[in-house]
Amino acid sequence: MEKPEKFEWRIPWRGIALALMVSMIALVIVVWKMANPSDVLHELGEYPLAYFFGALFFVLVAWVVDGQRISTLARAMGYRTPWWKMATLLGAANFLTLVTPFAGGGGALIVYFLYRQGMKGSAATAVVMAGGLAGQLSLASLALLTFSLSADVPADLARYFNAVRIGALSYIAVLFILLVLILRSQRFFKWVFRKKDGSRPAVWIEEFRRSMHYLLVERRRYFVACFAVAFSYYLVYYTGTFLLLSGFGVYNHWLRYAIAVLFGAAPVFSPIPGGAGVAEGIAWVVLDGALTADLLSTFIVLWRSVVFYIPIVLGGTIFALLAMKWASKVILPEEPDHTKE
Q1: pLDDT digit string (tens) for 250-296?
Q2: DSSP summary character for residue 7
Q3: How far apart are CA 205 and CA 208, in angstroms?
Q4: 334 — pLDDT class (breaks 50, 70, 90)
Q5: What is the crossing angle of helices 49-76 and 106-116, to 10°?
Q6: In contact, 287 and 250? CB cutoff 8 Å
Q7: Who's near 104: CB < 8 A, 6+ residues apart?
Q8: Most CB within 10 Å of its CB: which of 87, 102, 139, 324?
Q9: At what angle do helices 293-304 and 220-246 cross, to 10 degrees?
Q10: What are the DSSP calls for 57-94, one per residue?
């Protein structure tokens, strides 16, 4: 038998460069239209660095917290991974999230990592899917909580706050419906695959459905813990933006944090990698009355640096190192599947 050719894994540098270029162009256009670049540079020099580095600290610590979200569900499936390894993985996954549309690239890397750890692909996908559902539920819950508790909301922002509350409630309802459909899907999938029993897609789907049911029902305390960890992750992560805004002294604390949540959540639903332009547009609408044009442009530059550019450099470095480490040990289809041993 001939030995299969070695699979050559390549880092998608073109996609990474495109994501950075699109984001940089959007940032330059927004700043150029809003203020004189020399004024922005002057304001950057005057901005208190303690707030900037404090914001960066919370964004990076959030990686460690987010790693435990996946680790919690992996433990429910009988797999344990050191916290530092999961934190490192989530740094790389965050990089892929920032450079892919709808922030969807990180999940595939986590599935692959869990598969390499010995988990079946269907079970690994279920872990990431359940973790994603817990994350989205926690994000919507945090948005609903912060926007409901915010006091002294300016009249020009009240309609946006009402829209966010309604949107968060609607999103939570959709996620619960999705959870019910997944849990009640056995009869549906049996009907879809009734003529293909025993086929690989049918077997994979059934294993995935059983894994989801196991995590959401039989191991629901782990799912609840995953929700709590995800909620903590977003609390920590949006504290970074909150600190950046604190450097400008805008609004009261609750309102400031609610705006930080809005900035962080909006790019997740953007088809453009990293949500380029979405957050800047929100900043223009929400902060236009609180900051002058040059201060608003300064905030956008600082925010982009903390939540996008620096994490993409750090996460991209971690991703490249992991890719080079795994490239020589890729599990090929012709090789025995270690998950069945």
Answers
A1: 888 888 898 888 887 766 666 555 555 666 677 777 787 777 877 88
A2: P
A3: 5
A4: very low
A5: 50
A6: yes
A7: 97
A8: 139
A9: 140
A10: HHHHHHHHHHHHHHHHHHHHTT----HHHHHHHHHHHH
